[in-house]
């Protein structure tokens, strides 16, 4: 994607000066935002990513299918974590619909040859949204199985041509206290931030969701677009993204910043590494039409049952890099 495309300016209207001025504005916008590097943290220098992940398309797509019972739409859209709209599970769905999702623009920049803006239309340009059934497991011990709509993250990121210095990708949620009343409370260091190592971000299972159950994402699920990293705990699935930045240093994340000993950068689902407050060995599935919210408790699987990602972590001590 050229810068012109990224900025949504028709070719007929463009001059070199316009490109230059827009680029200046874009760079100024980035300069005005706080730095994202994770600082003074013991896991600031993780082992380098293994050389090459080889996942065949068939192996990858087997990850999108499941015969597991789906979580009901009503439960997936009323039992949520979205602290910008309150910290109770019912708060996000009961909150007023104050988030303005049209127009929506994601600024993409940092270590890449073609920084730019990404509108929702740009995102879907050249991609047919696909449906993927993914499990989302929260670190608190509940999980859901949801048919999501969206596009794979890697090809979207590649349009911005990350440089060799792009070792990580940082994501930032909108941080507007007017649209997000929960931001008035200092429960997290707003705006919500997350990050992935570049090879994780490029893995074919990483996904940008714009919908669920064939409908556009409701506000409580992260409208208009959110991340899904199905082999990691739910909190990595940052909602209502407004900024993506390629960075050289491991980026700070909202949960790590609030409680470094409890939330590491990688946050892979792992039944063998407990969270200090919750066992990760089993999970309560929210699924089915049973009148009770929680279905049976089932064993949690390594990488949430996505062995396709194991090679990303070959040689890494997952207790150390939790
Ligand atoms: N911006 C933002 N993104 C967020 C959160 C949040 O509070 N704010 N909560 C996370 C957590 S802890 C989980 S488990 C998932 C929940 O996604 P869901 O409500 O769609 O099930 O969203 C994640 N993304
Ligand atoms: Mo979570």
From TrEMBL:
Mo-molybdopterin binds at residues 80, 83-84, 138, 173, 221, 226, 237-239. It is an enzyme of class 1 (oxidoreductase). Belongs to the MsrP family. It comes from the Bacteria. Residues 100-255 form the Oxidoreductase molybdopterin-binding domain. This is Protein-methionine-sulfoxide reductase catalytic subunit MsrP. It catalyses: L-methionyl-[protein] + a quinone + H2O = L-methionyl-(R)-S-oxide-[protein] + a quinol; L-methionyl-[protein] + a quinone + H2O = L-methionyl-(S)-S-oxide-[protein] + a quinol. Binds 1 Mo-molybdopterin (Mo-MPT) cofactor per subunit. Its EC number is 1.8.5.-. It comes from Lysobacter helvus. Heterodimer of a catalytic subunit (MsrP) and a heme-binding subunit (MsrQ). HAMAP family: MsrP.
């Amino acid at each position: 994607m050229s810068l012109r495309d990224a900025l949504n300016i028709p070719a007929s209207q463009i001059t070199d000066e316009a490109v230059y001025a827009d680029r200046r504005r874009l760079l100024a916008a980035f300069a005005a935002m706080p730095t994202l590097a994770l600082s003074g943290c013991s896991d600031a220098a993780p082992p380098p990513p293994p050389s090459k992940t080889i996942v065949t398309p068939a192996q990858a797509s087997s990850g999108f299918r499941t015969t597991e019972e789906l979580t009901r739409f009503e439960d997936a859209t009323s039992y949520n974590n979205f602290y910008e709209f309150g910290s109770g599970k019912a708060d996000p769905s009961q909150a007023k619909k104050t988030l303005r999702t049209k127009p929506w623009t994601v600024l993409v920049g940092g270590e890449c040859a073609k920084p730019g803006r990404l509108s929702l239309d740009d995102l879907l340009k050249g991609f047919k949204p696909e449906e993927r059934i993914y499990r989302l497991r929260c670190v608190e011990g509940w999980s859901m199985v949801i048919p999501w709509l969206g596009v794979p993250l890697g090809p979207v990121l590649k349009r911005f041509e990350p440089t060799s210095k792009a070792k990580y990708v940082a994501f930032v949620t909108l941080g507007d206290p007017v649209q997000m009343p929960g931001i008035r409370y200092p429960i997290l260091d707003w705006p919500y931030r997350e990050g992935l190592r570049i090879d994780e971000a490029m893995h074919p299972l990483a996904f940008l969701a714009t919908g669920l159950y064939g409908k556009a994402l409701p506000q409580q699920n992260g409208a208009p677009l959110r991340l899904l990293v199905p082999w990691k705990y739910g909190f990595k699935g940052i909602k209502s993204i407004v900024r993506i930045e390629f960075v050289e240093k491991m980026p700070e994340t909202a949960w790590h910043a609030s409680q470094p000993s409890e939330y590491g950068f990688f946050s892979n689902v792992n039944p063998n590494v407990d969270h200090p407050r919750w066992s990760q060995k089993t999970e309560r599935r929210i699924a089915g039409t049973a009148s009770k919210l929680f279905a049976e408790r089932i064993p949690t699987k390594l990488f949430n049952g996505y062995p396709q990602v194991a090679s990303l972590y070959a040689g890494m001590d997952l207790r150390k890099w939790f």
